[in-house]
Specification:
The protein folds into two domains: 98 residues, 4-Layer Sandwich (Metallo-beta-lactamase, Chain A); 97 residues, no CATH class. The chain is 21% helix and 29% strand. It contains six helices and 14 strands. Helix 2 links the parallel strand 5 and strand 6. The chain starts with a strand and ends with a strand.
């Protein structure tokens, strides 16, 4: 199956298949004027079903605007992390809510919720012969230059538990979307490095990097050494064909 993957902004991605589209963790559109961005200009007008996924309720991963898309797009399915309901960001009737290890299945795809080292969940998405992963805020969130040794050990152990669980259930990923956040300091790539060392990953697209395109792109060298092709985004709205 051919898929098109577009980088929207921050952790926001779109996956387009022949008969449906998935938008994950929409925060802002790919242009400063949303009406010029790929979501508003193209995807909300595209034929076929639209799945809208949110991994958790943080404002940079969940924009309440997405709940208004149903007024424009009739064939739409919202699939949210349960914390969005628990934190009263959306009502029970708005979406299907997944907690860790829950799943959603229909004729087009299977979505499995795994853990996070922050709020909410991460998503494994099976589309026919392709397996994709969106990490949400799953990462080795450590600030080694600022944290105490105990805090660093705790962050490492937390991440290892969630990564081990994922690796026990998923042996191969065609495309992963994963945080490579320079705000973490000198070891900002560490979580992504551990991820592709634990799970064979064909492609990895960085996210959660703000405007630091060069820093995010620098992950490609390490990724290549592990047999993973890391995407080097240069602007919002770029896409690749899978």
């Amino acid at each position: 199956m051919n898929l098109k993957l577009s980088y929207i902004y921050h952790s926001g991605y779109a996956i387009e298949a022949k008969d449906f589209t998935i938008i994950i963790d929409y925060y802002k559109d790919s242009a400063d004027n949303p009406e010029d961005g790929i979501v508003h200009k193209e995807l909300l007008n595209k034929k076929g079903k639209l799945y809208v996924l949110s991994t958790h309720s943080h404002s940079d991963h969940f924009n309440p605007e997405i709940l208004r898309w149903k007024d424009k797009k009739k064939d739409i399915q919202y699939i949210f992390s349960k914390d969005i309901l628990d934190n009263q960001k959306a009502a029970a009737e708005h979406a299907i809510y997944l907690d860790k290890l829950d799943d959603y299945k229909d004729d087009s795809l299977i979505i499995e919720a795994f853990g996070s080292t922050d709020l909410g969940v991460s998503f494994i998405i099976h589309i026919k012969d392709k397996t994709l992963f969106h990490a949400g805020d799953l990462n080795n969130w450590h600030w080694n230059e600022e944290s105490t040794e105990d805090e660093i050990r705790e962050a490492e152990a937390f991440y290892k538990r969630e990564l081990d669980l994922l690796a026990a259930n998923v042996k191969y990923i065609d495309f992963a979307m994963f945080p490579v956040d320079p705000r973490l300091g000198k070891d900002y790539m560490k979580g992504a490095q551990q991820f592709i060392s634990a799970i064979k990953t064909k492609h990895l697209a960085p996210m959660h990097f703000g405007e630091a395109y060069d820093k995010a792109a620098a992950f490609a060298e390490y990724a290549s050494s592990k047999g993973t092709k890391a995407i080097q985004w240069r602007r919002r709205g770029e896409f690749i064909e899978l």
